[in-house]
Amino acid sequence: MKILTLFLCCVWLAFANVGAFQLPAKYNDFEKLLLSRMNFSIDPCDDFYNYACGGSSDNYDVEISQQNARILQSGLEELRHSDLHDHMMSSEAISKVVKYYSACVNEQNGRYNVAEYTRQKVDLFMKEFFQFVSYQFFNDDVALDLDRENLSGLLKYVHDEFHVEPFFTSLFQPDFSTESPRVLGFLNFTETSPTFVMEYDCKAQNKVLDKFVAGVRTVMTTMQLKASKSEVKAVARELMEFEFKLLGLCQENSDDGAESGKDGAEDVADNNEDDGENEYENEESHSTDEMDFTDETESTDESDEAEITDEADEAESTKETESSNETDEENDDESTIETTTSSEPESDGIRFKKLEDLTFETWNFDFNNYVREIIATGAGSNLIDYDNLQVITEIDHLPEILESTSDTTLLRYICFRIIMANVVDAPKCLDIVSNFPLIKNRIYTESKYASIMERESMRSLITTIIEMIKTTLKNMVTSMPWIQADKEAYRIFVKKFNRMKSHVGIEDDFLNNTWIDTYYEQIQFGESDTFLDMHSTVLKFNSYSKVRSLIYPENNLEVDTTGDNAMYSADLNKFVIFDGNLVAPNYHKKYPLSYNLGNVGGTIGHEIAHSIDPNFIDFDEKAAYNPFLGEAATEAYSEMIDCLVNQYNDIQLLPDHFETNRVNGTLTVSENMADISGIDAAYRTFKKFEQKYGRERRLRHPKLRDLTQDQIFWLGFAGGFCTKESDEFVELTLMTDVHSPKKARVEGSLKSLPAFGKAFKCPVGSKYRPEEYCKVWTR
């Protein structure tokens, strides 16, 4: 006990050091943070969300992003202007990043011209493949000979120079089910990414068409073209309908063939517009990226015997847990890790192809040559076993589309996608560092933590919290009578939690400059390179990250851990929380433990609870899809799900005049279940801390001094959702998002958590202390 207390004291004292990055003053004072957010005129038993968040117009998500941006920028400026980081700057890779960032900062003052740079590259592309001196984007009669048999060469050029795959998306996925170093995994050809970040609604195509019209206007400005409004709209419709075909959308009543775009153009033209002389100017739109996460530390089976559990639960589960451990230990050496990759193809009817089968003769497109060239470029000197590279094609309709579409339309669409990808969003200097995620993590961590001790103290404390919450969730699940009655389900749940891997995404590989320099050695900047030259080189390198994921299948290396993110992966049975989540106002050393556990603890609990939600409950301890609940347990689980669906269906967030004004309980049930069980486990963990180490002192401000630590815990939970959202945004969330809107996530969760009603002494039968409520993994 004394040793543990001394350890925790050292952990908290370690945070007393002043780091390289200094927090804004408003986050250093916890009481000021609460006072800036809370609305004391509201009864927490009537509307807790607005009680906790209604006094501020701040956007929680924006606050966290701004905090992480400040930390990163502080570190970058230190490297640019200080001589105190010789070890980091001795790395060639880190020096490249600083040069790249500095070039952006310096040239941004001179307003580098992305449009002009892209136009010059497009002109070179047209001369290389079509001998065009000037490409006439709007001319349907232009002499064009698109070599379909060698289309792979053109698309490889577009991939490398413009970082676009216009007709499809190629995803390389490592195969974790084999130990052979030569069987890399599989290649998945899926649909192209939509040009625009919006809902493509077949019943409201004019909204989508407006985006394409704006995109065509951007092409005009970039390529210095002129066209009438009718020409612009005709081309925009042609491009939209072609993209709909690629995406397999809205094809029920559409005409086949290349001429459908032109045939429908007149339907869009405004009757009162001059079709001859009016011309368009420039307009901008947007694009997005995705990421994955990184390596892990696996928890041991010793957590079966964790002491942090209710005595009643412990008494009921100890005997079964011990027998499960014995079986677990016997089977561990013999078992192999299965993943959804290896199990789902058979169950879902996915058909793998060999690369040699995807030639022009058999598929009307030479994917074979395209893939080999992509892999050869990305793999460098690594030997690749192409014969064992399996392929999934989810775009079997593509050959027919390409065959039925004119050369003019294909080239026009390629050009359109090039401009949209390269011109619309000019690179921002701080954002471009994300193109080097491994180095960005190092710079961020160096800036955030003043010492190794501070960094490792944070890692140790968060790891402890993760293990306690995971154990608490395991005990919640295995204490359910219908789980205890199902011996097989009980056994698998115990193993699943015991084998669940966890990782705190804090960069720790500070000294390994050799490895990171080798990893980025393909990026070479010339002495005369402008910022945009460097940027193009970096984007090309990043477009090959999909190939590097095959070469390093054990780790998804290129992961940015500086964002406000945490996740659970069912196919690895693994939880990770990123360092960017561990910042104020999310988490801070000066905040009460109750608040930190309500906020970050709730996030940890939520993600771990996804392992038992309707999407992932059927994945076993080996991360293989294996429905294991017996008939009675399945029925009990379904009743719990049905109750949650009904409970959230009753939550109305918008006035009646909105077409969609209530939560869709079915759409959001997995996230709602994770919210409730996750924060429940975090609260129980908080009470364990409090029982062992005593209660923290009360706050001092007159408006806050009566708050108990239990109440502060729930303020921490709500604090993670404090964001002002427009009614229109809420309606869009209700229609499309698997997450309930933020207010509903708080309100819906608290109805199923009696501890909240007791903490605020809400009357029995009131909104947050109903006599009947959905019990989620609790009796």
Write a structural description.
By secondary structure, this protein is mainly α. The protein has a domain at 202-267. Helices cover 51% and strands 4% of the residues. It contains 33 helices and 8 strands. The strands form 2 sheets. Strands 1-2-5-4 form a 4-stranded mixed sheet. Strands 3-6-8-7 form a 4-stranded mixed sheet, with helices on one face. α10 crosses α11 (229-247), α21 (452-478) crosses α27 and α21 (452-478) packs across α29. The two termini are 32 Å apart.
List keywords for this structure.
779 residues; 33 helices; four-stranded mixed sheet; mainly alpha; globular; 8 strands
What's the layout of helices and strands?
Blueprint: H1 2-14, H2 25-28, H3 30-37, H4 48-53, H5 60-81, H6 86-89, H7 92-108, H8 114-130, H9 151-162, E1 169-174, E2 185-190, H10 205-223, H11 229-247, H12 260-263, E3 297-298, H13 311-332, H14 340-348, E4 353-354, H15 360-363, H16 367-379, E5 390-393, H17 398-404, H18 407-422, H19 429-432, H20 437-448, H21 452-478, H22 481-484, H23 487-499, E6 501-505, H24 513-519, H25 531-543, H26 545-551, E7 566-569, E8 574-578, H27 593-609, H28 631-649, H29 669-693, H30 709-719, H31 727-736, H32 742-751, H33 754-759
Parallel strand pairs: 2-5, 6-8
Antiparallel strand pairs: 1-2, 3-6, 4-5, 7-8
Helix pairs in contact: 1-21, 5-20, 7-25, 8-18, 9-16, 9-25, 10-11, 10-18, 11-18, 13-23, 16-26, 21-23, 21-27, 21-29, 27-29, 27-30, 29-32
GO biological process, one term: protein processing
Protein name: Peptidase_M13_N domain-containing protein
Biased composition (Acidic residues): 266-282, 290-315, 323-336
